Amino acid sequence: MSPINSGTITNTQGRACRGPLWLVRSEIGQESWDALIHASPDGGMDGLWAWQVMVSDVTAWHVLDLSFGAVENGALVAAVPLSFSPDGGCLASPWFGASGPVIAEGLHWRQQRRLLVAIMDRVRQLAAEHGARSVEFSLSPTSPRSLANRWGINPLAAFGLKDVSTQSRLIDLTLGEAALWEGLSKDSRYQVRRARAAGYTVERRPWGEMLDDYYRTHVETYQRTGASPHPKAYFDGVARLMAAQGRAELWVGLAAGKTPVAFQNIARFDGRFKYWTGCSSGEHLDSGVNYLLMWSAIASAATENGQWFEMGETFPGEVSSKNAGLTTFKSKFGGEDHRSFKGRIDFPPPAEVPTPRPDAPIYTPPQESWVMIATDFLRLGKRIVARSVGLGRALRWQRRMRRLASLLLHPFQLDGCGRPEWTSPADAEAALRRTYSAGTIYKVDDICALPIGSGISYSDRVLEAKLDAVRSSCSGDGVVVDLCCATGAHLMALSDRFRRGIGIDFSVPFIIDAERRRRQQGIQSVSFLVGSARAIPITSGSVDTVYCLSALYQIPEVEEVFVEVSRILAPGGRFVVEIGIAPSLNQMVCAAQPNLPQLHLLTLPAALAMLRRLGLSVATHRSFQLLPMWGDRPKWLKPLLSQPVVRFLMRDINGRMLEERLASLPGLKYFAFRHLIVCVKS
């Protein structure tokens, strides 16, 4: 197992986090990543750090690198090379190679199985987030684990993958050069002798020196066979990354005048060699130079104490295709077929999201919640009034308050602003994703701003209060999760308050920008993941603090978010959450803005009850925004939204704004829109 430079990740009680912590490849570092690949019985060259960089650098392929690792008790226990092709809709481990999940050596078989189950779940989550239509895993046929199971059951089938294994031709190099020569077919030996007699020679040349010659011959070969040539950037990566590390050898077949006419690119990894790519000039196809090249590479590998030489996939069942010709050629050099284990998951196409119709029925929350608020409000009023006046006057006050509550509640039971609503939470979530993807309302540049200065604006004052609540909930040496982190400015500003911070958001553009900012600022303790708040990609009980600001009121089925937060929090962990509450005047202002997405609001009693059911007890509770404090609609609210009123409500009363004092009064807090609650998990 490879140690991670940041050390063991612990929570506030000092115990190691349970289950794996997922880290993207960039967080792990090349040294730790490659050390695991070399030491693992699953490792292969296609899993190395340089391979992932080589593939993702080919811009013509539009491949997104999603490689990640699993950390347990401060050690890297698994590495998963993973790439996504938006063009093909395929998530592959790895892309253009064979080195699927790589598990650290020395783990108990039960731990290995548990780890693989978690990895497959994580890959399925990534597939869902990126809209992948399929997932493919390929295992290296020359890895120690595959060699021990060369004709056994596909290990990927145990995790729900369809077995799509093929065969790969392997040559045992330990037999020695003499036995290997005898293992060649009669025709192969004849072609080797014939090429030598015609004056052809073979040399090993530097990749960088021969790159242009190789690519010119590669294009000619592929056009001759009717295939599309690979981008030159791919072979540039071979020369720049793989050959520079001694992982790629270029063998060149030379005609009598030392003119290069054929090439073979041989991969090498820990005593295992592989025929990677090759090409040859059409004028010299029948000269035997390709046989001479292949034999020279095999013989050289044997003299270097190599163990296996992989010729690549064979297709024994095909008799009239390019694959049939390749199979015949590879079989002439001896060896035997081994299974090349592959697994695949195909996902059904996503259901078409119905377009909202103006005449669609309005989706409204259950009315029991309004009754709960009204009942609490009336009971409170009845108690207060009954203690100070006679019973008759109390009853009159109760009737008046009932009429007032009815008037207040009525606008929120219907969409009084005429904006069309969606018919289900699924439709609302799809509309929310479209809104964020459009980038017109929620822009990358300003979605996650920091306070400009103390007391400058109402929004800055509220944001300072929220960030102060997060700071006081961080222990300094724990794991912190910013749920719905946007571009991550808040998490990075708090990076001195935790050992490791993880930002999660469903928006890919936001996460890309967050990662860019993190690299610019050189912050090593923070990482960002694409994920859903209703299916958080983090191990249960492994987080000390979770916070979610200015986001939950846009997420349908918010109780699912609370369930996930309770799951990932360790006992004693803290949840700092900002909840949008209905009914409120702010709700009416939002409804009057036709471009804003639909709100999904809770009543205060319902929200508190959800938290209690999940073992999240309230430690502190602050209320804001009894008045909307923004906007210019509806018109009848405009006097309350003027700047003089806002400035008056921002006045400081014993360290808190007057607006917060009013919004926290027992009867009025039910109608304040913004509630900042700090919970502790029991």
Automatic annotation (TrEMBL):
GO annotation terms (biological process): cell wall organization; peptidoglycan biosynthetic process; regulation of cell shape
SUPFAM superfamilies attached to this UniProt entry: Acyl-CoA N-acyltransferases (Nat), S-adenosyl-L-methionine-dependent methyltransferases
Domain of life: Bacteria
Domain BioF2-like acetyltransferase: 186-312
Domain Methyltransferase type: 482-577
Keyword DNA-binding belongs to the record: no
Alphabetized Gene3D superfamilies for the sequence: 3.40.630.30, Vaccinia Virus protein VP39
Stored InterPro entries: Acyl_CoA_acyltransferase, BioF2-like_GNAT_dom, FEMABX, Methyltransf_11, PG_Glycine_Bridge_Synth, SAM-dependent_MTases_sf
CDD domains: AdoMet_MTases
Keyword Cell wall biogenesis/degradation annotated: yes
Classification via Pfam families: Acetyltransf_6, Methyltransf_11
Keywords: Acyltransferase, Cell shape, Cell wall biogenesis/degradation, Peptidoglycan synthesis, Transferase
Family per similarity comment: Belongs to the FemABX family.
PANTHER family on file: LIPID II:GLYCINE GLYCYLTRANSFERASE
Name of protein: BioF2-like acetyltransferase domain-containing protein
